[in-house]
Amino acid sequence: MRADRVFAYGAAAGLLGDLLLGDPRRGHPVAVFGRTAAAVERVLWRDHRAWGAVHTAVCAGGALALGAAAARAVRTSPAASVALTGAATWAVVGGTSLAREARVIGQALEAGDIEGARARLPHLCGRDPQALDADGIARAVVESVAENTSDAVVGALVWGAVAGVPGLVGFRAVNTLDAMVGHRSPKYRRYGWASARLDDVAGWPGSRLTAVLAAVAGADPRGAVRAWRTDAAGHPSPNAGPVEASFAGALGVRLGGTLSYGGRVEHRPVLNGDGRAVATQDIERAVRLSKRVGWLALGVCVAARRIVKGRTS
């Protein structure tokens, strides 16, 4: 079976598995990787960029090598290759868990349970929940849904289309390392530099595809493109900026502004300044847009891999 068909069948099965099963409650491969990376960090940590680069190379390189070895072991069996691709896709994407967490917070806000929403917010993002009112929580959720659509779904599919199972697990490893050590806290400002920069590079194609598909699938394509073009560059993240701006324009809402993250207050640029303030009901709208983007991304990645395979065969 051709490699493009292996990816198509396996990735579709993996997304269906995520839709039907969500993340496992115990023994999740990403959690296992996180514990391993934390153990490596305890051995290597120094307040120095070079040691952080070694940490990144060991952890991301190890995940990539493991994925390549697994793919090589089943390469003679089309059925096993499809099954491995499906399992890897299911393990690295997180669209269902993302939607579930967002909806739980939205339901709490609709019920007027702001303390419940604050308690649940850390399951979705690293904002300081006590500093947020109901509207601030809703805005944080919509922004997190937008960013994680790229990080937890589209980016993985893009790299899966490029490099198969190694691409899937390698991207997820890089993204997880960035979440662990890539933030600008005193402890990780230097040590996490390599992980953060590698995540910027790895996330670039997925974030742009996410922004394009949000414009295509959203209610206001022109507004999405306009917000992306005018506001994304001011965002501190080169990848979150286009995604959040496109989601903001597509949904007709205003994102960005002041936030508290990890004990720091950040003043981010406003995205889609002509939009209205985020309301609780926009959480469900963002989740639905995220799901449409994820399935469209699968179609685009499958088609792109087939076209490339056809030209090279």
Which structural class is indicated by helix and strand composition?
mainly alpha
How far the N terminus sits from the C terminus, by CA atoms, comes to 13 Å
What is the count of β-strands?
3
Following the backbone from N to C, one meets helices and strands in this order, namely HHHHHHHHHHEEEH
Task: List segments where confidence is low: pLDDT < 50 over at least 5 consecutive residues.
Answer: none
- Helix % is over 70%
Rg, rounded, reads 19 Å
Shape: globular
Q: How much is the average pLDDT?
A: 94
Sheet with the most strands: spatial strand order: 2-1-3
Count of helical segments? 11
Give a short account of the largest sheet: 3 strands, mixed
- What portion of the residues fall into strands of 2 or more residues? 5-15%
Can you tell me about this structure?
- The protein has 313 residues and is mainly alpha-helical.
- The protein is 72% helix and 6% strand.
- It has eleven helices and three strands.
- A three-stranded mixed sheet has the order 2-1-3.
- β1 and β2 form a beta hairpin.
- α5 (95-110) runs antiparallel to α6 and α8 crosses α11 (281-312).
- It is globular.
- The model has no long low-confidence stretch (mean pLDDT 94).
What would a concise description of this structure say?
The protein is mainly α. It has helices at 3-21, 29-44, 49-73, 78-92, 95-110, 114-120, 134-181, 193-217, 221-231, 240-251, 281-312; strands spanning 253-261, 264-271, 276-277.
